[in-house]
Predict the 3D structure of the following.
Amino acid sequence: MSDVATKEVVREIPIARDVVTREAGKGSGRVSSTRAPSSIEAYREDFERQESGPAWLDDLRAKAITRFETLGYPTTKNEDWHFTSVAPIAEHTFRLSTLHSAGALGVKAADLERFGFGQAEWHRLVFINGVFDESLSSFEDGGGAVRVDSLADAIKSGEPAVQQHLGTVAKFEQHTFTALNTAFISDGAFIELARDAVVDQPIHLVFISGGEGVSHPRNLIVAGRHSRAAIIESYVSLRDSEYFTNPVTEIVVGEGAHIDHYKLQRESESAFHVAALVFIHSRRRAGAHQRLHVARWRCRDVHAERPLPHRRNAAHRQPDEHRAHRSQLSEPRGVQGSARRAITRRVQRESLRASRGAEDRREAEQQQSPALAHRARGHQAPTRDIRR
């Protein structure tokens, strides 16, 4: 399994981003696509078999699967995909995973120790192929100020924030894999922070994948005004297998809120991972940041560093790995800026903070999440190949 990663810190700016370990990007005008009837039809068949939900969710899913079928898969003729081929995903028929329990996947509590950073006091939600597993999870009741739950339970209970925000942050109209994820919204993490709520310990979301199917985790994080939390998403596997993970995370950041968000991938070297992370300020939606990150470990002779902005800070690639970054930043009243450095362990970090100007930006840059600050130390030098 891979252990090398990138770190990205983006502060203050409302950002919309598509992260891809083979993901569909945004095109302009007519979308150039490759239709793979076998795989697209298989997704439609699985869509028809899934359980129905509330009327508003069924309507959202139906629109998304139709849009996915219309878009098809992007080709290298697409503006955002000149150097990235998704043919291996398009040509493979991944069926919806049916292994949704720790027993079915052979996962034990002891298996999670190597992914927990030795922090037993952290709040932890564990998902098996995208479905919440309560037996492996541990978190304390936030007393009404903090809700940490599975998205499936939040949907069933009619949580107002879910209907208000789910599917409104991560737009799927021009993004193939975001549309596919939206069509299969079922479970994932739901985190809601009330106004002024502070979560002392990080919230660790552990997504364990296995088998040979596809999973579509959907995460929704709603941070109220002046709230604060550190959230870690870990995508892991216990053994080598060829599967497809297609998560989408939507984050709504209230005024004055601060969310430290980390993502770690320690997956099978044979796996595909497509991910979209979209976060916005609740009042201002200006700006977009798209990051395309492709890590099909067995692909060869593919590298996309040259056409990318911020090349000076672009992360190095590993053998048989492909990464691409694309950024579009625009903030009418704030300060634009981003910093990226490569560090070990395939870590991505975003510090999301709703702010009004340079003073808040300087303050944000001086702050680090104590829980993961040690990961940043010792990696301030320019990127280098650490395998030598």
In short: The chain has nine helices and 20 strands. The mean pLDDT is 71.
